Amino acid sequence: MKLNKLLERLEYTVLQGSDEIPITTMINDSRKVEEGSAFVCISGAVSDGHEFITEVAEKGAAAVIVEREVQAPEGVTVIRVADTRYALALMSAAYFGYPADKMKVIGITGTKGKTTTTYMIKSILEDTGHKVGLIGTIEAIIGDKKIPAANTTPESYTIHKYFAEMAEAGCDSVVMEVSSQGLMLHRTAGISFEIGIFTNLGRDHIGPNEHADFEDYKRCKGILFTQCRLGIANVDDENFADVFKNATCKTETFGFSEKADLRATETHLVSKPGYLGVAYHVSGLMDFDVEIDIPGTFSVYNSLTAIAVCRHFDVPADSIKKALKKAQVKGRIEMIKVSDDFTLMIDYAHNAMSLQSLLTTLKEYSPARLVCLFGCGGNRSRERRYEMGEVSGNLADLTIITSDNPRFEEPQDIIDDIKTGMAKTDGKYVEICDRKEAIKYAIEHGQKGDVIVLAGKGHEDYQEIKGVKHHMDERELIAQVLEELRG
Known about the structure:
The chain has 15 helices and 24 strands. The protein is of the alpha/beta class. The chain starts with a helix and ends with a helix.
């Protein structure tokens, strides 16, 4: 492929060499450069690709794509663009033959609900014969292949690589989570989304290495709705108007409000021994009853979103109802059977908004006690810890404060920050730094009628300490605890 073919959708300046040279590979990782590569210099949080130009030239790079003045050896073509991250996205699409154009791409953005909703949409569409690829927080799914995720929204090169594999595997559609970071860093630039979805917005991802403030967070979420044909939005969210203020797409809404195009009415909780669910009537653009095996109001929102999307694929109501009944997501209100007396579940709730939503939902089922076990991540906003401590203190009958991913902080320091939030409430708590011991305490002290939530880890199967990810799966910890208690 010639370099100018990769650059065909970009404005650029040739500073040195020629844009008509042949290119063997395109890459943004200096370690993977080979003879004839085009190397895109990305300024990242850890390193700056512009600093590796001499190194990649020695490896045989034919061209470098830059966004500032650089010194490059003779014989290496230098192309300057306004933003190399944006360039990487559009060049990646060209490199893989614009695979997104061969499928219907559905993008979901919002503070919470993205992951569950992607799996619901996938489940419904596949139940009616569609072949659906998925990219999200937990994994990418391409046919029978599952690839664990490092980021909610991968780097643009990886996205288009996945798209190309999906198209090759016969996928006719893709559902993907689109994070505010992904939008801010142009990872999805140039993708023409068939449908963009806005679930909700809470004060999250604001701080070092994330968003400067809430306005920036809202602005970045709104980018998706300048890139899609149809925007489907939660009209009940107070930030809906702000997120859509620059939207260029046609818009439909869902929610409980009478203003919603697709709305939930006659909502009621369903509770049986070892089972929590919710049922409601779909009104407006569609008309039928539905029941889902996941509790709470947010489950209504997630399923309504999926219904709103699948309506545009002409999926019949009966197929939607059947598919929603079996749509389950690892680490999202995942029930683990440990006792006939109480209910234990694992959930990914890892910020104040998602924890409040989860605990408020579970309280509606009137448990004898609501027990919440959680920790907070290190090297993240301390404000999040105070808020989560306050939320759990206000809503849970007992909070078990433990460790999450301490990263480069001391676990006890994080626990102390959580206790600062707890101190604003009358909530009872115990602190047990070791997560396995904390889980053991929760199970050992479980009482009849309790609902116990292990929050924060969800689908994750590791604990990050001092830069190292140690294997830790809560399902395995629970099994070990039960074995010890039986012993």
